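Input sequence (175 aa), recorded before submission:
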Amino acid sequence: MKHSLPDYFAPALNILFVGINPGRRSAALGHHYAGSSNRFWKLLYEANLVPERLSYREDARLPEWGIGLTNLVSRATAGMDGLTPDDYADGRLVLMSKVRRYRPRVVALLGMTLYPLLFPLQPRQAGLSPGLQTVTLQKSAVVLLPNPSGRNASYSYQAMLNAFRLLTPWTTIAR
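Predicted structure, token format:
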């Protein structure tokens, strides 16, 4: 089994999606968001961020539409409980370097738990909610999104779709 996934970047990215880390199924298949209950690919299309329906097997195509993919921690685990504070600290430094290099217009954080991991010095925000945040990441806007994993029962599909649609101003897709 692979233990990490490739990043997908391109010059002048509009949106960079950042996950926490790959799940074991995604790592085994070699593609992002490959879990059978993960809604990422359906959300991308239904939010009008890509012009055609895609599956995890087509993750390498996202840069065609100015969309990149990466993770805070590259090591695959069954869940967040398999990650350490050192994983997060190291991942934060690597992510900052990637964002500085590729300069996406917006960084879309996939999972509410990513915010405190990336911005540990920010005051804890009670009721942190999806949407455009007041912070930036290497001068890129930051949009916080619910994690599209099927394990995330905190948000309905419609709430996730509404959150993903907040990225529409950063796309160049017209359908």
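Checked by second reader. The chain has a mean pLDDT of 90.
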